[in-house]
UniProtKB/TrEMBL annotation:
Transmembrane segments: none annotated. Residues 355-369 form the Orn/Lys/Arg decarboxylases family 1 pyridoxal-P attachment site domain. It comes from Alteromonas alba. Keywords: Decarboxylase, Lyase, Pyridoxal phosphate. SUPFAM superfamilies: Ornithine decarboxylase C-terminal domain, PLP-dependent transferases. Belongs to the Orn/Lys/Arg decarboxylase class-I family. One of its GO terms (molecular function) is carboxy-lyase activity. PANTHER family: ARGININE DECARBOXYLASE. The keyword Cell membrane does not apply. Its cofactor is pyridoxal 5'-phosphate. It comes from the Bacteria. Gene3D superfamilies: Orn/Lys/Arg decarboxylase, C-terminal domain (3.90.100.10), Type I PLP-dependent aspartate aminotransferase-like (Major domain) (3.40.640.10). This is Amino acid decarboxylase.
């Protein structure tokens, strides 16, 4: 907590504060007063101390910067989630709070002098509200009560596993708490996920407050489902939707389900590294100008490799034509919580719909996802119908609880965790600069790869560490085997020339040191690996998508399977998606060309998984 004080009537000593905390029976809360006398001092304190949870400013001391709200704007630009309180003489209260909507509360100096406990209780109550976990708290309390279960699930708190001679090892591995907390939706007090009631509803409302959106929803089967829910809510048959071709396959499937007409922005590929850039803003604006009747724009806010679109430009231009904007921000759930990222945050940019895979880079269980909505025209009733179509009536409560506590961490220490991670990356890059053959790619490399990088103000998330291994003389398979089997490092993604390492909220400095140690061995050649030639680069581009019909018509039409090599001129009836990076080469309704087959053949030497290709055959529409 930052307290700015020059007047003796303000609380000024740690000892007095501790006595107040004791009176309030909150001795577990560690509060500290720090004096600041300028805007720069306040920002410096916030940057240096991620544990600061409130700012209390004196009107008398900082009058000028408070009068024009500059100090409040500076604080909020660093730590959006931190509440700001202002003290002053009673008669200036209305004037102060009318100057900025970002002030949490005003305290009169007379009230502070006569009843300091009530003022501190107000601040501490705000702290409690921010750190609350409505679902997790109620869920944990109910689970430990160990009530007799006369409802689903059938294992009844783990009894069927525990008492079995054959499967009790399953129980022993996960432990008692895992099973007693696997509950039925029959527990009314915890609420309904489909209806958003009781503890679940309160938890979702807190998420909306933390992310500063109108509505937030929990999804327990991944952002793939979150994406489909949004698309089916917004699109009807034949509706035009402008889409980044590089979107996750769930977006393409969602468009098929909605029977919409996709207008695909081109993939921009760097063949040396196999990296895809965001689509160019010039092409996007041209698409909007030519299709002002489009209902929606769908973009990936942060690519797999960490490239970031300047979404404010997109949103502002789209909204001129009343086109909604939906951003899949699966890999960037922390974008609001650090000033280095906020410029590229979809929510900060004003996007109407945003999805976050809370399990990918922040602290939630796999398949846990958020949907955030800021659309002023949001049709909540229809959304709930689509939500009910996709949501299980027996959701996994562990996932819901993880979404609840994930929000708390982002709210209370998101800035601190991200700041530490960024410092770890900075140190890692300084050390890696000593390598002779391995390089860490950075913004300058991306600027050289993509001609629109600077013009479009594309950014990069340094927590997606992209490592250039093209100068090593070992095959991908040998490098992967070494990292996994000999060093115990599981890498997020390989291409023919790169490794992608994600530094998530679970990242620790010791893990980075181990990664550095493994790369150092590879760089120095101190490994027992077979040397072999490697593919130098991919084909220069992915063929553009040209649709012969609506994707849904092809997908739901009569299909047959034919050998890939004999499919030229036929209409694809399924997605063909190489992994990595998961960018569709073919979508339903697209005419297959020789160029597509050549591209797939070029990928075959990398031993990639190609989803939709079955033993060399693909599905096409019957003639």
């Amino acid at each position: 907590m930052i307290i700015d004080h020059n007047k003796p009537r303000l609380i000024t000593t740690q000892q007095y504060l501790q006595s107040v905390v004791s009176v309030l029976d909150r001795s577990d809360l560690s509060l500290e007063f720090l004096a600041v006398n300028s805007e720069s001092a306040a920002v410096t304190e916030l940057d240096n101390d991620g544990d600061i949870q409130a700012v209390l400013l004196s009107w008398e001391t900082l009058g000028d910067s408070l009068r024009d709200s500059s100090i409040i704007d500076a604080i909020k630009s660093r730590r959006l989630e931190v509440p700001v309180y202002v003290t002053g003489e009673n008669e200036v209260g209305f004037d102060i709070v009318s100057r900025s909507s970002k002030i949490e509360a005003f305290f009169a100096l007379h009230d502070i002098a006569s009843d300091p406990e009530s003022c501190l209780a107000y601040i501490i109550n705000d702290f409690d509200d921010r750190s609350e976990t409505p679902f997790w708290t109620a869920y944990k309390k109910y689970a430990v009560e160990t009530n007799d279960s006369w409802h689903t699930p059938g294992h009844s708190g783990g009894a069927s596993f525990r008492s079995s001679s054959y499967i009790n090892d399953f129980y022993k591995f996960f432990g008692r708490n895992m099973f007693i907390s696997d509950l039925s939706v029959s527990v009314d007090s915890l609420g309904s996920l489909s209806d958003g009631t009781n503890a679940i509803g309160k938890a979702q409302n807190l998420v909306a407050n933390t992310f500063e959106v109108k509505h937030s929803y929990f999804v327990t089967n991944g952002s793939s489902t979150s994406n489909k829910i949004i698309l089916q809510t917004l699109l009807r048959e034949g509706d035009k939707v402008i889409i980044d071709r590089n979107c996750h396959k769930s977006v393409h499937y969602g468009i098929v389900q909605a029977r919409a007409l996709p207008l695909y922005l081109d993939s921009i590929l760097d063949p040396k590294y196999g990296i895809f850039a965001p689509p160019s803003l010039s092409q996007l604006k041209a698409f909007i100008s030519d299709n002002k009747d489009a209902k929606l724009i769908v973009l990936t806010g942060c690519t797999y490799d960490g490239l970031l679109t300047d979404l404010k430009q997109v949103v502002d231009y789209a909204h001129q034509f009343d086109i909604k904007v939906f951003i899949d921000e699966a890999w960037f759930a922390y974008s609001l919580f650090h000033p280095q990222y906020r410029e590229y945050s979809a929510i900060n940019a004003g996007a109407d719909y945003v999805t976050h895979s809370a399990h990918k880079v922040v602290s939630a269980f796999s398949q846990a996802s958020y949907i955030h909505i800021n659309d002023p025209d949001f049709d909540k009733d229809f959304f709930k119908e689509i939500y009910a179509i996709h949501t299980s009536t027996s959701p996994q409560y562990h996932l819901i609880a993880s979404l609840d506590v994930c929000r708390k961490q982002l709210e209370m220490e998101g800035f601190k965790v991200i700041n530490n991670l960024l410092n770890h990356v900075r140190e890692f890059k300084e050390q890696a600069a000593k390598f002779s053959r391995i390089r860490i790619l950075d913004k300058e490399d991306f600027r050289q790869m993509f001609s629109h990088f600077e013009a479009d103000n594309i950014g990069h998330d340094p927590l997606k560490i992209l490592i250039d291994i093209s100068a090593l003389s070992y095959s991908n398979q040998e490098i992967h085997r070494f990292l996994m089997d000999e060093v115990g490092l599981e890498i997020e993604k390989f291409t023919h020339s790169t490794l992608l390492v994600l530094l998530t909220f679970g990242g620790m400095r010791s893990k980075i040191v181990r990664l550095y140690n493994a790369l150092n061995k590879l760089d120095a050649g101190h490994v027992s690996l077979r040397k072999s030639s490697r593919q130098k680069e991919l084909p220069s581009k992915i063929p553009p998508i040209s649709l012969a019909m609506l994707p849904s018509d092809a997908f739901f039409g009569k299909r047959e399977m034919v050998p890939l090599q004999n499919s030229v001129g036929r209409i694809a009836a399924a997605l063909i998606t190489p992994y990595p990076p998961g960018i569709p080469l073919l979508v339903p309704g697209q005419t297959i060309e020789a160029e597509h087959i050549n591209y797939l053949n070029a990928l075959s030497s990398q031993k990639l998984t190609i989803q939709g290709l079955i033993d060399g055959d693909i599905y096409v529409l019957e003639k």
